[in-house]
Amino acid sequence: MRPNEALTRLDVELCFDGAPASTLVADLPMGAHVLESARDVETGRKLPVDRRAREIDISSLGRDACLRYGVDLERMPPGRRRLARRVGDAMLLNVSLWLWRPLRLREGASATLEFELPDGAPSMRASTPWATIDGPGERYRVPATTYTWRSQVVLGEFDLDTVTAGGATFSIARLRDPALEPVALTAEGQRRWITTAAETVASLHGRFPVPAVQLIVLPFGRGSSPVAFGLTGRGGGASVVLLISSDASDDDFIGEWVAIHEFLHLSMPYITAEDVWLSEGFVTYYTSVLRTRAGFRDEQAGWEAIVSGLNRARGSVTDLTLREAAAQMNQRVAYDRVYWGGAAVALLSDLALRQESDGRRSLDDAMRELYECCANSPRRWSAAEVYEVFDRWAAAPILSDLLARELDRAKFVDFDRALRALGVEIREDRVVLSDEQPAAGLRQAITGAPASDRAEPGRQ
Ligand SMILES: [Zn+2]
């Protein structure tokens, strides 16, 4: 694929190994809209394009044939620019906008892709979610999930850094937006931020859940939180987008929750939308627990955050069960209810496993089992399938029985008893941690605070 210097058009040449497919399709309607003509490279003949069906008929191509097509990004209507978004001198490009694929994708099929960056723009570079292939030039292996799940590349001028942490390599593309205030985060601060977040997540399973991550850091302007928003994608490989505040200093980023939260998604399989309470809930629980375990805050502050999240969820969108809230999360703006409702299920599950085993096993072990078997699966998983894994691992339906009680509970997940069992008490709106055993022991097993921390008054 060859972009022009202005990043307004792309020339794509596709070659087949052996017999070509008979039809190419674009996964996005906009893909057909921005397509110029497609031609057989050998004969120069125009290939029939059905724009409504988003298909190119390539049945006339011979073995090992190539076709070439142009993509005119200027044809995008202004309101649809999120598929090809310009930030400063770089362009974020949804891959399905310009990479047509065979109509029938064989399972495990992959393609090889190479960029030809224009000679006139020596500082132009590319960031992708794909693994590189050894050999001369930047060649990438493009797996089928590139098309089935959202994936994007960044082309143009941006800062590129590589961080290795928790056994994973993070290729960080940081874009500059001249329309916004310059970002205060330094390159060194960014490295510390990503390293500490990756190590925190790696502490759950002993290593970071995937070997490589395409990380895209975008400025969003001023904001009170260091990171305003994050999004994890899995198309073509792991990819995380983080929107950072221009105000936040290097230290503000250390231990912030968004990067940890997004990275944690990669430790679970991609969960179906109707079971979003499971992915967001368990990730929310572990974001909270791991930040305390890592020492970014003390045990008291860690449990205050959990209690506050649970109470917020219990008090919002009170007419829906957790299952209903997950199904209507966007329409009803039920994010707290779903994220912290799912976190409450995770907390109860963790406690149940620790209690029935006298502390020999916990939700950490169940999550590790799920990670080992299924986190890198190329399809989406339902909660029912995940709970089959949990129950098989536990050799008893401990977790699915618990879920059956809580998922359709009319009020909210019943977490008060769990907090009491952990010695987390609410007295006059304040969270008070009890030092009495066994509650204190159980609680410290979850948040991992060393015993000495409790003896130091005033510690933050
Ligand atoms: Zn999330």
Structure, briefly:
This protein is of the alpha+beta class and 460 residues long.
Describe the structure.
This protein is an alpha+beta fold and 460 residues long. Helix content is 34%, strand content 24%. The longest helix is centred in the last third of the chain and has 22 residues, at 335-356. Mean pLDDT is 93; it is low at 450-460. Zinc ion binds at residues 261, 265, 280, 283.
Number of helices: 15
Major sheet characteristics: 5 strands, mixed
Q: Describe the oligomeric state of these chains in a short phrase.
A: single chain
* Total beta strand runs: 22
Task: Name every ligand kind in the structure.
Answer: zinc ion
Shape: globular
Approximate helicity band: 25-40%
Mean pLDDT over all positions: 93
Give, in spatial order, the strands making up the sheet with the most strands: 16-17-18-20-19
Poorly predicted regions: 450-460
Global structural class: alpha+beta
The N- to C-terminal Cα distance equals: 52 Å
Rg from alpha-carbon coordinates = 25 Å
